[in-house]
Write a structure and sequence with these properties.
Elements lengths: L7 E5 L7 H12 L6 E5 L5 H8 L6 H22 L7 H17 L4 H25 L4 E4 L7 E2 L12 H14 L3 E5 L2 E4 L4 E3 L5 H12 L3 E6 L20 E3 H9 L10 H7 L3 E5 L8 E4 L7 E17 L5 H14 L6 E4 L3 E7 L5 H8 L3 E16 L7 H8 L16 E7 H16 L1
Parallel strand pairs: 1-2, 1-8, 2-5, 3-5, 4-6, 8-10, 9-11
Antiparallel strand pairs: 6-7, 10-11, 12-14, 12-15, 13-14, 15-16
Bound molecules: adenosine-5'-diphosphate (ADP), aspartic acid (ASP) and magnesium ion (MG).
Length: 445
């Protein structure tokens, strides 16, 4: 079944549904887009996912855990009360969450499967609240758990990915909802494995839910509504003067997201590329701003798009004097992929390579495999700061510009000139903000 006419996906992030006033604001944005058949994807109310995760913090006392649970419930009840909707809509979820909290308190341990179940409650409740408020103001809307309409994933808890038939299922189920004139309000972030366990798509995963749904439906646009005016030249929490960028290519946006720009979940762009759907990043706090459009285009030559950073990075140095540079690179890349690590950067000098990976991927198994190739040294917990753009090696005097702007900052790894879309350095946590600010000044003022 096809949707009659065009449709768009609108995803609203946590801060955008942080309290009753923000939810009213989101409802008015949805109301003004009803003629485009919007499918809504929603995150948990701001801060709720973090609160849910802390329920599983085993160093807390039972009273502390119950206090967090109560805080979560109170936040939802206050929101519901202020929106003047029926509080019964979330009662079932509260009961289930309460059972899980009791189990965690008694058993005093959590599996990755329990963690995903725990984290799922935020979106399960927010979708019901938003749908109910939309109905209350006269919009025909219904809440859906993504897994009930086809979001089926593998069992990689904490970072699950969809199974191929998800697209077909979502399309079939959602088309019939939309054709009845209903606005579906779908949980971001969560899915279910084939055996029926709830899974999550990784922190910030509601963006990915939106693009999966957009690709499944052949949407005319995937809108990511957040709390800033689109993709900026740096994180505005660090660089106050960061500017919004009008248009970026899929490749640039992907690289930004992979390099830590939190504004997009790293996988968001992939489904959009597959179906050539434009992604627009917009601000619920400033809805008339045109934001950033991400689309299939040849990127502008030699431009820096943004300075990004990624925390909790480990640098591994691997050396073997009897191997050629290319052999060493090939062997190291082989070990990374056989350990299931695909998000990394690697740069080489004559007899050693430097690998930067996320702290979470720094496992004993990886180190033992690398030791079979050569000498291994790791330095832990740095911040990778990246200059992301297009054809950046062709920017005149780029290396001089980078080194002069970073004078006095201790650099663990210098940029390798092998990538034309990303030059990265690794610095200590203490100097990271300063590195971001200085590079931003060097490239954008
Ligand atoms: P949401 O809850 O809407 O998903 P996120 O907090 O996940 O929002 O992402 C938006 C945040 O991303 C912004 O508030 C900003 O601090 C951060 N951010 C980091 N880098 C960038 C960047 N280059 N451009 C825009 N925002 C960025
Ligand atoms: N609520 C989830 C998180 O905080 C997913 C999201 O917001 O995109 O990670
Ligand atoms: Mg996000």
């Amino acid at each position: 079944m096809e949707v009659k006419g065009i449709m768009i996906v609108m995803k609203f992030g946590g801060t955008s549904v942080g309290d009753f006033e923000r939810i009213k604001n989101v409802a008015s944005i949805i109301k003004s887009n009803l003629n485009e058949n919007p499918v809504i994807v929603v995150s948990a109310l701001g801060g709720v996912t973090d609160n849910l995760i802390s329920i599983a913090n085993l160093s807390l006392t039972e009273d502390e855990v119950r206090a967090i649970f109560n805080k979560i419930i109170e936040k939802h009840h206050t929101t519901i009360e202020k929106l003047n909707i029926d509080e019964k809509i979330i009662q079932e979820d509260i009961n289930r969450l309460n059972e899980l909290v009791n189990k965690i308190i008694t058993v005093k341990k959590t599996t990755s499967q329990d963690m995903d179940l725990l984290m799922s409650f935020g979106e399960r409740m927010s979708s019901k609240i938003l749908a109910s408020y939309l109905s209350a103001i006269g919009i025909k809307a219904l809440p859906y758990n993504a897994y009930d309409i086809g979001m089926i994933t593998n069992s990689n808890f904490g970072n699950a990915d969809i199974l191929p038939y998800t697209y077909q299922k979502l399309k079939k189920n959602l088309s019939s909802v939309i054709n009845k004139g209903v606005v579906p309000v779908i949980t971001g972030f969560i899915g279910k494995s084939k055996d029926g366990s709830i899974t999550t798509l990784g922190r910030g995963g509601s963006d990915y839910t939106a693009s999966i749904i957009g690709a499944a439906m052949g949407a005319s646009e995937i809108q990511i509504w957040t709390d800033v005016d689109g993709i900026l030249t740096a994180d505005p929490k660090i660089v106050k003067t960061a500017k919004s960028i009008d248009v970026v290519s899929y490749e640039e946006a992907s690289e930004l997201a992979l390099s830590g720009a939190k504004v997009l979940h790293p996988k968001t762009i992939l489904p959009a590329i597959e179906k050539n759907i434009p992604v627009r990043i917009l601000n619920t706090f400033n809805p008339s701003h045109k934001g950033t459009l991400v689309l299939n285009r040849t990127a502008e030559k030699s431009r820096v798009v943004s300075i990004t950073y990624k925390k909790h990075i480990v640098v591994i140095s691997l050396s073997n004097r009897s191997m050629l540079k290319n052999e060493l690179l090939k062997a190291a890349s082989g070990v990374l992929s056989s350990n299931g690590i695909f998000e990394y950067s690697i740069s080489a000098s004559e007899s050693s390579v430097s690998i930067t990976i996320d702290e979470k991927e720094h496992t004993p198994a990886l180190i033992s495999d690398l030791k079979k190739i050569g000498n291994v040294e790791s330095s832990i917990n740095g911040v990778k700061v990246s200059i992301v753009g297009n054809d950046i090696s062709f920017i005149p005097k780029i290396s001089d510009l980078i080194s002069s702007s970073l004078k006095g900052i201790k650099i663990e790894i210098m940029p390798s000139s092998e990538s034309n879309i990303n030059h990265s350095i690794v610095v200590t946590e203490r100097q990271a903000n300063s590195a971001v600010k200085r590079l931003h000044t060097a490239f954008f003022s």
